[in-house]
Amino acid sequence: MFQVTIGQRRTVEYLPEVRFVLASQSPARLGVLRSAGFDPSVVVSGVDEDAVAASLTDPAPVELVRALAVAKAEAVYETLAGTHADMVIVGCDSMLSINGEMVGKPLTPEAARERWASMAGKTGELLTGHSIIRVENGARTKEASGTEGTTVRFGTPSQEEIEAYIASGEPLQVAGGFTLDGRGGWFIEGIDGDFSSVIGISLPLTRRLLTEVGVSVIDLWTRPAS
Amino acid sequence: MFQVTIGQRRTVEYLPEVRFVLASQSPARLGVLRSAGFDPSVVVSGVDEDAVAASLTDPAPVELVRALAVAKAEAVYETLAGTHADMVIVGCDSMLSINGEMVGKPLTPEAARERWASMAGKTGELLTGHSIIRVENGARTKEASGTEGTTVRFGTPSQEEIEAYIASGEPLQVAGGFTLDGRGGWFIEGIDGDFSSVIGISLPLTRRLLTEVGVSVIDLWTRPAS
Questions:
Q1: According to its UniProt record, which residues of this chain constitute the active site (chains A, B) (predicted)?
Q2: Helices vs strands, H then E, count in chain A
Q3: Range in A28-32, A64-68, A69-73, A174-178 with the lowest mean pLDDT
Q4: Active-site pick, A39, A93, A181, A192
Q5: Residue B82 maps to which CATH number?
Q6: In the structure, what pLDDT confidence band is assigned to residue A99 with cuts at 50, 70 and 90?
Q7: Who contacts A61 (Cβ-Cβ below 8 Å, separation ≥6)?
Q8: pLDDT tens, residue by residue, A126-162
Q9: How confident is the model at residue B22 (pLDDT cuts 50, 70, 90)?
Q10: B99 pLDDT band (50/70/90 cuts)?
């Protein structure tokens, strides 16, 4: 941050334009960030998640989501290094565990049906990992990473509701087979933790990590619409 | 719901088109419902909230939010009676209590500043009331109402963050002076309860009330975009 001084008065403070890069193709993450006043650039990492997981020896879930978030931010940093003098690159990973088992995207209607049969009326633990790399004046200067856990309490949709939800296509491509911010919202009784984390990017965790690398969220806010 | 039979096969089930009427001008409530697959009609009630409150003798907060939700649905029913054969009208009211005190919209930057000074780092209780009136074949047939409480854990924004947030205008016109689904999301550490309730309309509570009046949420879903 630097100051513009007119006469003897300190008048305006500016942060040189910092580019916020979201290393994820998730439209839900982009939507959360935009609603919260950011205008992210999206650069997809193309990280081989299975290879990252295989490189770790029996990782705890928190270690795995953090390692995947770090790998994604690192890959995008490799892509972008030298292109923009000031930026923060944010990598994200999310996993859901139900009954102690990590579950991914169901992908097929059959898998989504099984998923809902086993999780209806129960709770799940949504784990999110974020990693931030800071570039200042063209040089990599700081990094920070962290994880956050949120409990999700699933409702008990009827067979007809589950079939209609699956037919909508929404649950197939998302971790755990549910969307909190879509039609799935009807079937989630509540959460204990951060709602943005469940959607895919935790705003309070991202704020803490940005602070660690010397950036305030308000410096990244776009001008309000009003 | 009725069935169309072709030959001996039951082929398609239809619910005659039910109009979902949101008796609220809140764009946040409309946004939650649209994201969750509904296409509501908005009809604003114009209810005098102070008069409703004054008509009750020392009401508990849950009684008050329920009474206000009922008054809004009733007012819109009076407006719409006879215009549409099949509809559900949903009235909503929300209140936030912090340190045992009910708080409304701050309206001014000064009030928003005081609000955040007193609630930063603390928890609040967001109370939501909903009321539904069902009209079938032109006649009023059923009604249901209920309330839901959610705990909100506020973060500790810096002075600069609070000033920038107030300058955005977002917190002035919302109960409690915070937006979970906007820039305020950076400053909410988490919730315990239903996130849609905090935004203004609880999807799981609305689903339960719709079931009570004989309507399934999936009958009100629009065709998926995909």
A1: 93 (proton acceptor)
A2: 7, 9
A3: A174-178
A4: A93
A5: 3.90.950.10
A6: confident
A7: A95, A97, A102, A127
A8: 999 999 999 999 999 999 999 999 999 999 999 999 9
A9: very high
A10: confident
User: Which residues 6+ apart lie within 8 Å of B172 measured at CB?
Assistant: B105, B106, B107, B108, B109, B112, B166
Q: Strand A87-98 vs strand A19-22: parallel, antiparallel, or unpaired?
A: parallel
B36, B190, B226 member nearest A194 (Cβ) = B190
Structure ipTM = 0.88
Rounded to an integer, what distance in angstroms lies between the CA atom of residue A190 and that of residue A152? 6
Residue B167 CA to residue B161 CA, distance in Å, equals 10
Q: Kindly list the residues from chain A whose CB atom is less than 8 angstroms away from the CB atom of residue B207.
A: 155, 186-187
B7 three-state secondary structure: coil
pTM comes to 0.87
| Confidence bin at A123 (pLDDT 50/70/90) | very high
Residue B176 near residue B150, CB atoms below 8 Å: no
Residue B128 to residue B61: CA distance in whole angstroms = 10
Q: Structural domain of residue A57, as residue ranges?
A: 16-220
Domain count, chain B: 1
Per-residue tokens: A62:
């928190």
Which chain A residue has its CA at the smallest distance from B187's CA? Answer: A204
- Which tokens sit at B6? 């072709």
Q: What type of residue sits at position B127?
A: L
Q: How would you class A99 by CB atoms within 10 Å of its CB: exposed for 0-12, middle for 13-18, buried for 19 or more?
A: exposed
Secondary structure letter of residue B37 according to DSSP: T
Residue A93 annotated as catalytic: yes
Residue B226 lies in a domain: no
A3 is a domain residue: no
- Tell me if B185 and A36 make a contact (CB, 8 A cut-off): yes
Residue of A190, A198, A224 with shortest CB distance to B169: A224
Average per-residue pLDDT in chain A?
90
